[in-house]
Design goal:
With about 80 residues, the chain is an alpha+beta fold. It has a four-stranded mixed beta sheet with strand order 2-1-3-4. It is globular and about 35 Å long. The chain starts with a strand and ends with a helix.
Length: about 80
């Protein structure tokens, strides 16, 4: 099973967009576990993020900011293909 983690500042303006993206990913990529993580300032520093929002696939930061949904779904599907 693959994992996507979406990290964002708690209460940030991007929070709603990230949560909607998480729902879209759950529907578009049912084989993936999707988790969203609101972080406080001290948690951002502790986790070592330079920029939020951040998209982490299987433990690797692959994007910062809010990626286009289509790009991210395509990336996850390509990741699935590479595992064959």
């Amino acid at each position: 099973m693959h994992q996507v983690d979406l990290y964002y500042h708690a209460g940030c303006l991007s929070q709603q967009t990230i949560l909607l993206l998480a729902k879209d990913l759950e529907q578009g990529c049912p084989g993936w576990t999707i988790a969203s993580h609101p972080l406080l300032d001290d948690e951002v520093t502790a986790k070592g993020f330079q920029v939020l929002p951040a998209v982490v696939i299987n433990g690797r930061v692959v994007a910062s900011g809010i990626p286009r949904k289509e790009w991210l779904i395509r990336t996850l599907r390509e990741w699935d293909q590479s595992d064959l």
